[in-house]
């Protein structure tokens, strides 16, 4: 299927900027490709070439190093106990849960792109969905580590699952921490299925193109006998639609349940009704920032600029602006209602966040999440590679601090001033956090190297050549996109 | 008019097909007359009433309902521009007309201003007379006194003016510009509307939130919930999208827009109603209820407790079933959304439940003994006869009167101009789009 001869492509002379869209026409989502085979070659080249860019090796070795350090920190934690962290009474949750929420949030962009943007017929999603979904999987793996290692007696971690046992001992079903176990594991399972289902046709392409026996068998095993027949495609598309519909509630439910961890309590700063949608918006915000952070170097490094175009990046930056504004809305409403409630504890919790001992964290949070993303109102910034890269990093930092502020500032200064304390992270806290980036990056780099980083089959479907009437209108560029069935 | 880009043979874009005929004009007038008569009757029933609180709240319910419909139309309109949507051009005009109603909707707010001038505002908003509140319920007054900087009549009406001005400008702007494009053509206006839609979204979010705080949440002034604005926003989607579907079906039943609004468009409108008007509403409602129930803090639970005693428990459950579960099951499949008559029944159902939802938000009063009762059972027993007063005639005369006036005026406006933005550059995309 990779070399179907198609009609004459639109004559293009190496277009770089496709961000402008004249109403009535649709801007091209794939640039400088004259036929389907160009897409296949561009994407497969990464997985097939024997030599990868030096930068990949450097990044991989660095990530492996961090991963090793993560292993060391965890081993040290297991051997010594949770006391190696800076936790105290009352701050019994800090970096571990912050990292957990941070990583779960990062995962959200993948599901949003693959499910919700699919249902909204946002065709540009095809350029970025594959690796955003991959990111989801890896981020959830990173997230899963933290609740696992903070329980103290890690050897009985399986008790979080309701497994029948002769002690008749069950987890507390009324605890949102248990709901988390279900929410996150469902999320992981469905995301994995979605990712894999979407990848089957592309794996088959890699299999068909493979030269060596090992590669053929390797990709062939996972391509599940895909032959690209009409019936295959038909079923594939049904399955894809159904998975999208089933994943859509998950986009909302996972981070809602994570927000319940805090919001069902009575702690000021945690107990507030806007938490579920606010956490979801924040998760998508941070997730998209991470996609931009990774997409910018990846498209440079692997020559994917014609598939992940400036338009894709521009659109993602717009979503960052929208969700960042939602987060800003939630911050303001929380603050307003804390005053409006007339409850002294509510008011204190928020004033303490902004002006108390963690004022600097709050300051970082607001400036990174609300103030700097406003620069994305300007198209010049949205389409500037360096501009968006730096801003996306800032958002990542801001969103990590948001969780830190919510979790630690509310715990450290609760109702009883005599029990107040300060949380100071130890090197193990920091090492585990940084190490988790090593795990994430290692998995991501392996994915880039060995799997189809872009959904080739889906990208081809949004090219003008996929329109059955493409040839009829080859001379009339106006009719290229408009409707698929003119 | 030039429709060179369109395949003239396939789509009937004659003015005959694009404008409502004389029957619509008659219907529009009849509706307005019936509406005015009903409102006058309601006014007579209300005159000299000894329960001004009941009457004014009932009025507020129906006012918020027509407001929600209009805001839903505005939301739909600017979101289409914000996302550069192509599919929706054929059904955008009804939404624009609903949004344009925001230019005069403040007139229906005047009775509340009138109450203030008469010094009766505290019948509706108990915080408006703090001395009375203090004499009556000192505990609540202590809490409310802390919010006087926000909840005072001067600031309250200043904010109201700000909301109405913002909405009137936005609603009129999107409507007028779209009409202007009908004669001007080209893409200049589309570009302009796309630019404006992003700040419009910000203004919309803030005004809707604070209007919901002011006109709905502050009815129980001691109570607070950060998600409340989002909850009302979900209600505007329910009401607005339902109204759009009803208008589209009406237009086509009158033999207009033949072949222009297809089952594809109905399916998409149905999907939006399903996603925002039911599922999102339920998600927000659940988030609010679950967190307050679980946290179980007396300052917050009173609001729900007053809605789960006596008859109110039935209405609460009816809302759960009627606003979410039943329509969810009915509209989840593909065919009901593509079958205009079925979808119309769904839209009528949902628009009524949008009203009931507002009734449920506005009418209950948090009883004073909610803070003093020693147990839930004691409280529930004491209020087991609490009535929703849903069958009180004035509820229905106000609802029908307001609905007739609103849809009469809407229809009158709809009749004056083409039923779709006929020179929108994305019209072709909309007319030929299919759900694959």
What report would you give on this structure?
The complex is a heterodimer of chains A (486) and B (436). Chain A is mostly helical. Chain A has one domain (33-163, 186-463). Chain A has 16 helices and no strands. Chain A has helices at 36-48, 54-80, 95-106, 108-119, 129-149, 176-209, 213-223, 230-263, 275-301, 310-340, 344-355, 359-371, 379-382, 385-412, 427-450, 456-461. The longest helix of chain A has 34 residues, at 176-209. Chain A is globular. The model of chain A is unreliable at 1-12 and 474-486 (pLDDT under 50). Chain B is mainly alpha-helical. Chain B has one domain. Chain B contains 18 helices and no strands. Chain B has helices at residues 15-18, 22-46, 52-82, 89-100, 110-118, 130-136, 138-145, 153-184, 188-215, 228-253, 263-295, 298-305, 311-331, 334-338, 340-362, 376-382, 393-416, 427-431. In chain B, helix 3 (52-82) runs parallel beside helix 8 (153-184), helix 4 (89-100) runs antiparallel to helix 8 (153-184) and helix 10 runs antiparallel to helix 11 (263-295). The longest helix of chain B has 33 residues, at 263-295. The relative contact order of chain B is 0.18. The chains are: A mainly alpha (486), B mainly alpha (436). Chains A and B meet through helix 8, helix 9 and helix 10 of A and helix 9, helix 10, helix 11 and helix 18 of B.
